[in-house]
Design brief:
There is one protein chain. By secondary structure, the protein is an alpha+beta fold. Helices cover about 20% and strands about 40% of the residues. Strands 3, 4, 5, 6, 7, 8 and 9 form a 7-stranded mixed β-sheet that branches. Strands 1-2 form a two-stranded antiparallel ribbon. The radius of gyration is 22 Å and the shape is globular. The chain starts with a helix and ends with a strand. About 20% of the residues have low confidence.
């Protein structure tokens, strides 16, 4: 089919508009997964030095991470040293895995820990993570820390 210049420009604008609508639809669906510090709101206000600014907090599509106990968590660093030999939890919504030195459901602290995105359920025996590039440490109380309040630690099978 041959277009004249005027028809081609209209065709090009329609394609651009369709593309833009698809992008905006995708972006707004991703924002739908954003949750603020309480489940009532998707957006909250952060006080900055220069003023007040809205802030989006992207979390698990299910809201809080529902971390189920999944056996043993073993983590090796990039040098091959075992740095964590402890507990494994996996989110039942987004499959995020947490391997920690202490059991957060019992002791309410983690010690050394590492996050790993599994993208699928792992087995009930746990996980071995090789070549971990970072190891964090948290010795506070997971029940009172604002970050860890986004996680719910529950007993697995």
């Amino acid at each position: 089919m041959i277009f004249n210049k005027k028809e081609y420009i209209i065709y090009e604008k329609i394609n651009y508009t369709t593309y833009l609508n698809l992008v905006l639809t995708f972006c707004s669906s991703m924002i739908a997964f954003a949750k603020g510090p309480n489940s009532e709101s998707d957006m909250y206000i952060v006080n900055l030095k220069d003023g007040i600014s809205p802030h989006w907090d992207l979390t698990c599509p299910g809201g809080k991470h529902r971390m189920k106990s999944n056996g043993k968590g073993v983590v090796y660093d990039t040098s091959g040293n075992r740095v964590i030999n402890g507990y494994c939890y996996q989110c039942s919504n987004c499959f995020l895995v947490l391997a920690s030195q202490h059991d957060p459901r019992i002791s309410h602290t983690l010690g050394k820990y590492h996050f790993h995105m599994a993208y699928e359920p792992i087995g009930i025996t746990g996980i071995i993570i090789n070549n971990a590039t970072y190891i964090e440490e948290f010795n506070g109380d997971t029940r009172t820390d604002s970050f860890w309040q986004g996680f719910e630690f529950i007993k697995g099978l």
